[in-house]
Amino acid sequence: MNKNTNNHPQFDPDNLEGAFGHLSNKDIKTRDRIFSLFNSKFLVKFGTSAVYKASRLGLPVSFFVPKKLYRLFVGGENLKQCAPLVIRLQKDKVFTILDYAVEAKSGEREYDKTLNENLDALAFGKKYPGLKVISAKISGLAENALLESIQKGEDLTENQKDKLKKVRQRLDKLALSASENNTGIFFDAEESWVQNPMDMLVDELMEKYNKEKVVVFNTYQLYRKDRLDFLKKSFQNAKEKNFLLGAKIVRGAYIEKENERAIKMGYPSPIHQSKSDTDNDYDAAIDFCLQNLKDISVCVATHNENSCKLALDLAQKYNIDLNHPHLFFSQLFGMGDHLTYNLANAGCNATKYIPYGPIKEAIPYLMRRIQENSSVEGQMGRELGLLKKEIKRRNI
Length: 396
Description:
By secondary structure, the protein is an alpha/beta fold. The chain has one domain (76-361): TIM Barrel, CATH 3.20.20. The chain contains 17 helices and eight strands. The chain has helices at 16-20, 25-38, 41-56, 61-64, 67-73, 79-91, 108-127, 144-152, 158-180, 192-209, 227-241, 255-265, 275-291, 305-317, 337-345, 359-375, 379-394; strands at 94-100, 131-136, 184-187, 216-221, 245-250, 296-301, 327-332, 349-356. It has an eight-stranded parallel β-barrel with strand order 1-2-3-4-5-6-7-8, surrounded by eight helices. Helix 11 links the parallel strand 4 (216-221) and strand 5. Helix 2 runs antiparallel to helix 17, helix 3 runs antiparallel to helix 16 (359-375) and helix 13 (275-291) packs parallel to helix 14 (305-317).
């Protein structure tokens, strides 16, 4: 299903001017150097390992991570530093999704701190209309042990019940603020052993806040064998309870962790055995969402060109405007510009997913992203190949 030809001549991912016109010659050369390094799995593995160790030892990780690398993938250390980027992207017809990319810390005080940071990001959207959505992790707002207890079906202690009440209050504050600021909120999917209670909590928010417009989005990881069916069941539940479904569809980010845990604990892995099975479910999810776009708002979050082209073909098949408010696309900041900018130029709702946070605290996120994307077959090579072509085109 993933072998798709482009029937939309206005969307051309090979259009170098469209992909890189916003970058200076210096920017192009910097990216070329960085992606050349990323194309080496050995260097990625060695470099990320060294940075992790330095972080654990309390060494100044900023010494190990060049500012150019940080700035390529991270919007800034705080919201104020992100503002010029949000404005610049909007001028290029690209919307912003902001993510406070600090690894989750435990404790009620830390959860409230994360809540306040996300509330500030939602308020930020009032000043900057280019901010379309913020992204949040429930693991940054709730105790992992609590989520695991709920997933296992254990009877909660009074203390746990009180903690769950506080989690619901935090989530409700976020959804209410998103609604009032006319900004969406994505809740990321996480590990399978804590995902069920997260789905439950997000469903509660969607039922409350997605009555007339889509404010709250759940995330569906299609590398899981059960997620396509779960997406369909989520939609049926939304129809029965009379609310709109918000769906961010991704392939998935925890494949090694999921498989290792399954082997260690002796249960079948929830992850598809082949990439083609994941691709098929992902593309089937696009089809399902577009068939039901009146009642589903979907973010096609992918760096896969064929999936983007498929979404456009299906939009044409189902007579859907490319700028339909319930259909948008997203790629990570610093990558996939040949998709984001050319989708925007084709009239689609294109977004960049932009993490932000203090360099020391955002490093684990940055390293994980580098590892994830260097492991995707052909992805770094594709990015590097396009940059080489652009260097040749510019004769620099």
